[in-house]
């Protein structure tokens, strides 16, 4: 079995054994994204890899409607238990997006993209961009090559290492962010210290006439 196919099992086991492993406080990046979304009057937020919902709550508290995508049914059950049942959470892999035909004016994706392989990352970025409405913003966080775990574990491909059985991480730098998000409305890259050094990657979908289409 490849590491790709082991991932659903990995997350099921992790949530079953460790339950609310990151607590109930939102990540710093979620608060930054929420402030950006408020500034731009964003109302409909998609969260791929929503986990058990700790980051979703800051957006809901600010009056936004949240929709999630999550591979672990255990995490979805925990989200329902803690935050209620009025949020749509699609059970499946982000690599199978889209799950609906809706447009979102905000997308927030925390610590998920770097778990995927190159073709999967490209598809997820483009699928998110397609579901972003004009003038909408999407914010991704992903691990940086400055993390102490960079280069540890089993080498898979350039900047990609299997650090645990079933968890492979792709480590970003500014060049790889530009290469992967250049076609997806990249507007800003900043650094944020979460449990690891992360990049906060902000993209905006400009209106078609501004893009000259
Ligand atoms: C590092 S965790 C971050 C969770 C959440 N964003 C948080 O911080 O509370 C990654 C999340 O993405 C989910 N996940 C991993 N691979 C996925 C995939 N291919 N499709 C959808 N969700 C996935 C995991 O189950 C987990 O909830």
Structure description:
The protein is an alpha/beta fold. The chain has one domain (3-19, 28-204): Rossmann fold. It has six helices and ten strands; from the N terminus they run ααβαβαββαββββαββ. The protein has helices at 3-18, 28-39, 56-61, 73-83, 118-131, 174-181, and strands at residues 44-48, 65-70, 88-91, 104-110, 132-143, 154-157, 160-164, 167-170, 186-193, 197-204. S-adenosylmethionine (SAM) binds next to helix 1 and strand 2.
Summarize the structure.
By secondary structure, this protein is an alpha/beta fold. It is built from six helices and ten strands. Residues 7, 11, 22, 27, 49, 51, 54-55, 69-72, 75, 93-95, 110-112, 115 line the site of S-adenosylmethionine.
Shape: globular
CATH architecture verdict = 3-Layer(aba) Sandwich
Span from first to last CA?
A: 44 Å
Arithmetic mean of pLDDT: 93
Write down how many β-strands occur, each being a DSSP E stretch of 2 or more residues: 10
CATH superfamily: Vaccinia Virus protein VP39
Helix content: 25-40%
Order of helices and strands: HHEHEHEEHEEEEHEE
The number of domains: 1
Sheet with most strands? 7 strands, mixed
Helix/strand/pairing category: alpha/beta
What's the arrangement of strands in the largest beta sheet?
Answer: 3-2-1-4-5-10-9
Distinct small molecules bound, one entry per kind: S-adenosylmethionine
Low-confidence stretches: 1-5
Task: Provide the β-strand percentage band.
Answer: 25-35%
Radius of gyration based on Cα positions:
16 Å
CATH classification class? Alpha Beta
